[in-house]
């Protein structure tokens, strides 16, 4: 397992905090997309997004790969994957999970890497880069640098697929908790989070990240010189009425119909701020 992490990046030192958080989070990350209905729907939307844009035989860098949920999905699509993550613990879990799923044949190697500095990879090394689960949301003031790195390492015409944490969708999905935090810390804290998307403004918050709006995501891609070709929310109708959805999930044909309609809703431009994550696809031009 090779390390490509930068020794001395500028910034506030949050990379180490993120690494420690996901080292501690360990196996919980494996179950994040399976433990409840919003997670399972989010996985389905992310998987469909991969299937639209990844071709068999492509060489893919998966940055922020975590325990391997999407590594297996990439293997199922016929991709060859370089697996990278900031957390050594997550990389070890990735090896276990991917092997158990019978997908290790698709993994070229695993290594520790920071999304803000992919200088260990040559420009144009990959057909695609996948940065699912929000690694760009941990780059903070360096998100434009990180996005430029994702674009640099794909070939001309190559695709960057990523998801970032969604500001308004998260606020909608977590409204009771967000309201409780604001009552505890004051309205000014809530106002700062909603105006910046930055959870570092919440005192004592263990899991800090930067949440984006769809408009900010569009600007992030434009600033990298890539061309935005697709976008989606990770959830829409699946964030509420969970008791009803639990019953629907027991009926395979009706559940599949719901997932198809949910995917259509999430892709609508007016809904892209409405899920817990925002997905986008961008192509590297000349």
TrEMBL record:
Domain Methyltransferase: 60-158
Biological process annotations from GO: methylation
Superkingdom of source: Bacteria
Name of the molecule in the record: Class I SAM-dependent methyltransferase
InterPro entries (alphabetical): CFA/CMAS, Methyltransf_25, SAM-dependent_MTases_sf
Source species: Streptacidiphilus cavernicola
Keywords: Methyltransferase, Transferase
Pfam families named in the record: Methyltransf_25
A GO molecular-function descriptor: methyltransferase activity
